[in-house]
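Sat 14:20. Reprocessing the chain from the morning session after the first attempt stalled halfway. Input below, unchanged.
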Amino acid sequence: MVLRQIQSDRTLLRSELRSQSDTTCRCALVISNKVSKRAVRRNRLRRLLHNHLRQRLEQRTDLAGWWLLFSLRPNAAEAEPAQLLEECDSLLKIAGLER
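Finished this time. Tokens:
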């Protein structure tokens, strides 16, 4: 799994329609067909990681304006869910985003 983080720039991406855009960070998960050919498996991985990230980051107001991009590697489908969540936490810790 790979984590990329950037500070968002209001001039490039406008988000007037989102009322909470100034108080929360945004996360995106990229899970390609190389991870799994089956959409069901990719969606399960996406839901697993999305719920985990929501629990970890929803109260973090200091990350307002940040965009986090998680990209799963092709061998991620064979990993156990606990292993993926552990790797996600370690990436957040390495990036200095976990307290």
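The domain at 2-90 is CATH 3.30.230.10 (Ribosomal Protein S5; domain 2).
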